[in-house]
Amino acid sequence: MKRVLTTTLFLLNLLIAQGVSAQSLTENNGTEYALTDSVKSLKIHYSTHNGANVKAFLRGRELVNSVIQGIIDDGFTPVQPSLDIGISPVKMPEGLSVLKDGRLLISITIDEDSLERVLLGYFSFEAVTEDGVMFFLHNQSNTDEFHLGKDLVLSVIAKIKDSGFVLDVSRLEIGISPVTMSGEHIIEKDGKLLVSTEVNLDNLERTLLKYFSWP
Prior knowledge:
Elements: H1 2-17, E1 25-28, E2 32-39, E3 42-48, H2 54-73, E4 77-78, E5 82-88, E6 97-100, E7 103-107, H3 112-119, E8 123-124, E9 133-137, H4 143-162, E10 166-167, E11 172-177, E12 186-189, E13 192-196, H5 201-208, E14 212-213
Parallel strand pairs: 3-5, 5-7, 9-11, 11-13
Antiparallel strand pairs: 1-2, 2-3, 4-8, 6-7, 10-14, 12-13
């Protein structure tokens, strides 16, 4: 009983320090913890994995919440209403992040960049330009790489439009990749355009012009 009371007091202090309602966290058998957070429109159910203690559990929760908040602030939208995330205090045999039975297992030793790339798989960028150009992540871009590539493409499109050309398709989907694809910086596949962030601007302009016409 003394051990349970000590654990509970420690837990309550951590909850208060992190701004978590004490009623929102449940304890099972004194060793497993779970809580559900809301980050804007996304519900996140957290639970322990690999025997994480309270401190490790809340540390992992804080890391994931922070990265998700940044992703949403960068204009991305969750593709599903909720996430089920397990927090592990150590790296798992399969890696620092593992998807198992619909549950995303995250080690607290993962770095923010790697975590962001993993979590972005559960988000999409839904903004569409007035011309019908939309962008999507490809090859696990992070938010910085995605916006770099997107802004690069939009600057070339603006240059083409300023020259008098008009977009000749009702919708143009462009994937942004942080690396080359089979050694290529630009690939046209299944009606979509895949662009590397290191693409040559002249080559990008030549490729994009295929989707424009002179009025």
